[in-house]
Design a protein that fits this description.
Layout (H helix, E strand, L loop, with lengths): L1 E6 L3 H14 L6 E7 L4 E3 L4 E3 L2 H13 L4 E3 L6 H8 L5 E4 L8 H4 L6 E5 L7 E2 L2 H7 L4 E8 L9 E8 L6 H11 L1 H14 L14 E2 L15 H10 L6 E5 L2 E10 L7 H6 L5 E5 L3 E5 L4 E9 L5 E2 H7 L10
Parallel strand pairs: 1-2, 1-6, 2-5, 6-7, 8-11
Antiparallel strand pairs: 3-4, 7-9, 9-10, 12-13, 13-16, 14-15, 15-16, 16-17
Helix pairs in contact: 1-2, 1-6, 5-8
Length: 330
Amino acid sequence: MLKILYAGSPEDSALTLKSLLEKSKDLSNGFEIVGVLTNPPTAKGRHSELVPTPVAQVAAQWNNSTGSTIKIFEPEHLDFPCRQSVESTGAELLLCFAYGHIFGPKFMALFKFGGMNMHPSLLPKYRGCTPVNAAILAEDDVTGISIQTISPKCDEGDLFFQKKINLNKTETAQSLLTYCAQNCVEPIVESLKFISQNQKLPPLTKQTGDSSYCNMIKKEDGKINWANDVHKIDAQNRAYYPWPGTFTTFNGISLKIIKGKIFEGELKDSVTAENAKPGTVLEFNKQNGILIKCGSGIYCATELQLQAKKAMDYKSFMNGTRNFVGALLE
């Protein structure tokens, strides 16, 4: 039975872990997860209660419901004591999805078969930490899933598997990452089964094509420039959902545009819209949303949130916000 250490932290990584744990119950798949490596608990809420990562929570719930003894490692650093603890599990392969830290050679030396990493893009395109966001921002027609070996250099490992995903330009970062988390499980299981049965890695392929890198996202990246084309603004909104979100200002107050879409209908007053400045709130369309002038095209906001208030659908927002139509958002 191939022993696995699973490394990850956020919700989508936890979703993959949960599916893999279910798959591990089928002994013919030939693997078991003996430990999880995840970030330390973070302080949340009014009382700064320490909350474990979603991956840690899934592992703990699995232990409680099945009587398993999956070890949960939540180190600040992958130092010598951490390596000793990990080594004691007997894990033979490191399986990673969104752990967020670099694995050094001393850590990787613990694993007989090295490491396997799920990356939500068609490598070598969009190496780095935000590939899903980058694909949406670029308005790509295709992205994908890559399962690669863990290498010393960022996302330059050889490939176990790749799958293309066609994009329809309605995906958000959240929905696309969740799709990848769900659809990486079967190819991972097939690779693990091969390793367990043959005691070696399956045939690997080298990455080919032009490489590109994506950067960390900053909160200020969500600031909307209404002079941009509506397709660019729509892509920005979807790429930054749920974090950092897109925002603008209304009468000097921060206003989040949580959800929206490109408006393709008829305007009540097309002449006024033609002469309006980008960022002008053109009208309240009861069937679609709040229409906002862009540098080219019209954006339709459907869920909004003023600073210090709750998020609202567009109808509730208009009921509680005076003088919004005609305002210039900046």
